[in-house]
């Protein structure tokens, strides 16, 4: 059957084409009196308990949440124009409550597992993105209930869901294996760097005691001190986010942690720019060309070289050498700064300017710094290449999974 719908195309003749609202209802029961305490959240296309997730929430807000039960399907219809990676559909697996900002659908005359996969298939081709309303393109149940969906006979719905459970389960296992290997490569990379910047790459040698946490000995001819002894550093700023006049798409580049990509150089462009008006009212200093940036808030330990003068936010420290040291060596040895961090209640590293300045760090001669940098450049390039291969395989598996789901729920396989 030719549906004449761009998001569906042809479906089997034995299937029906029905408005979504004829087979489902919207769940709108609020958690009055906080009778249900298990708060749920979206996590990469799944609905999980916040007690096992990583979101911050206040129990007193649960009264405004919606009560959900296993089999309900949740759609995040918010800010469709800001979506970079569609994972907007999830199925509820346990009793709980979830924010009422989401669309919560109860399948009534359609298999819940098939319906969940169906909406995931639509999400994978960004069907919902053309349906949102308002400046931020927000989707509600009233719009969603009007779309046509393919409906095979119930026994076939069950077979499709079981088929996808089995196939997607194997794909997820393969993805998990590659992610685990990437984590091991990250750990290996960190170990290689730590060993090189604390023991050198010249083999066995005379050592002396150090004052760095978990590093009892360093080469006898190396220097030891605090970051502020060897480097000067500055931090950036954030203009008032409520004042739109301080931001301008055609203004000056303003770099944040979110702009960093993991590459050695800062990116060729930034997401946000600041206006001439802000700079005329505030005396701000750019990170100079040739300096090294280090992230110390939210995401600690990202580093990148500055290839042009640029403004940054206050979560980035900009380093310049005070003594005979190479910034390229600090690019790697900055891994030691995190050892001076505090750990918060979420088990995340927390640094401030004082802790950075007083972080203990070690330095060999300029000649040996260059040797270590050359060694680590080569070693890390090989590790990063291995990580990239695994990431490429993950991307292919994720794309195959999306294609498999879409083709199965629309009767094309």
Which helices and strands occur, and which strands form pairs?
Blueprint (H helix, E strand, L loop, with lengths): L15 E4 L4 E3 L13 E4 L2 E4 L16 E3 L4 E3 L13 E3 L4 E3 L4 E5 L4 H13 L16 H4 L3 E4 L2 H46 L7 E6 L2 E5 L3 E4 H4 E5 L11 E9 L16 E3 L1 H6 L10 E4 L7 E3 L5 E2 L3 E6 L5 H7 L8 E2 L5 E2 L2 H5 L2 E4 L2 H44 L4
Parallel strand pairs: 15-19
Antiparallel strand pairs: 1-10, 2-9, 3-4, 5-8, 6-7, 6-9, 11-12, 13-23, 14-20, 15-16, 17-18, 17-20, 21-22
Helix pairs in contact: 1-8, 3-8
Structural class: alpha+beta
Strand elements, count? 23
Calculate Rg over CA atoms: 27 Å
**Between the first and last Cα atoms, what is the distance in angstroms?**
15 Å
Q: Point out poorly predicted stretches.
A: none
Give the oligomeric state.
single chain
Q: Can you tell me the overall shape?
A: elongated
Q: What's the arrangement of strands in the largest beta sheet?
A: 2-9-6-7
What percent of residues adopt helix (DSSP H or I)?
Answer: 25-40%
Mean pLDDT: 92
Strand content: 15-25%
Number of helices: 8
Largest sheet: 4 strands, antiparallel
């Amino acid at each position: 059957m030719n549906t004449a719908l761009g998001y569906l195309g042809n479906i089997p003749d034995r299937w029906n084409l029905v408005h979504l609202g004829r087979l489902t209802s919207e769940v709108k029961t609020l958690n009055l009196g906080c009778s249900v305490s298990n708060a749920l959240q979206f996590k990469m296309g799944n609905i999980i308990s916040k007690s096992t997730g990583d979101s911050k929430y206040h129990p007193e807000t649960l009264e405004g949440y919606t009560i959900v039960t296993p089999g309900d399907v949740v759609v995040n219809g918010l800010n469709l124009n800001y979506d970079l990676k569609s994972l907007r559909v999830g199925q509820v697996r346990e009793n709980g409550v979830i924010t009422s900002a989401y669309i919560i659908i109860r399948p009534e005359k359609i298999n819940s597992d098939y319906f969940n996969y169906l909406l995931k298939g639509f999400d994978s081709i960004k069907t919902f993105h053309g349906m949102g309303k308002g400046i931020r393109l927000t989707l509600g149940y009233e719009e969603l209930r009007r779309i046509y969906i393919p409906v095979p006979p119930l026994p076939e719905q069950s077979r499709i869901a079981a088929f996808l459970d089995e196939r997607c389960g194997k794909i997820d296992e393969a993805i998990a294996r590659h992610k685990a290997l990437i984590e091991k490569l990250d750990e290996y990379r960190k170990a290689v760097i730590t060993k090189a910047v604390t023991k050198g790459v010249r083999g066995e040698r005379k050592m002396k005691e150090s004052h760095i946490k978990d590093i009892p000995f360093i080469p006898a001819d190396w220097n030891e001190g605090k970051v502020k002894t060897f480097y000067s550093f500055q931090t950036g700023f954030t203009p008032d986010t409520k004042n739109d006049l301080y931001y301008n798409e055609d203004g000056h580049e303003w770099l944040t942690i979110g702009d960093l990509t993991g590459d050695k150089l800062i990116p060729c462009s930034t997401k946000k720019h600041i206006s001439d008006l802000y700079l005329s009212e505030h005396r701000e200093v750019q990170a100079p060309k040739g300096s090294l940036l280090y992230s110390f808030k939210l995401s600690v330990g990202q580093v990148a070289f500055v290839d042009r003068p640029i403004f940054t936010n206050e979560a980035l420290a900009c380093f310049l050498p005070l003594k005979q040291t190479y910034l390229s060596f600090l690019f790697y040895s900055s891994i030691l700064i995190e050892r001076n961090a505090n750990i918060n209640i979420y088990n995340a590293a927390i640094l401030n300017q004082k802790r950075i300045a007083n972080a203990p760090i070690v330095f060999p001669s300029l000649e040996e710094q260059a040797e270590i940098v050359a060694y680590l450049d080569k070693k890390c390039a090989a590790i990063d290449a291995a990580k990239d291969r695994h990431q490429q395989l993950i991307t292919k598996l994720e794309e195959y999974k999306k294609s498999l789901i879409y083709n199965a729920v629309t009767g094309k396989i």
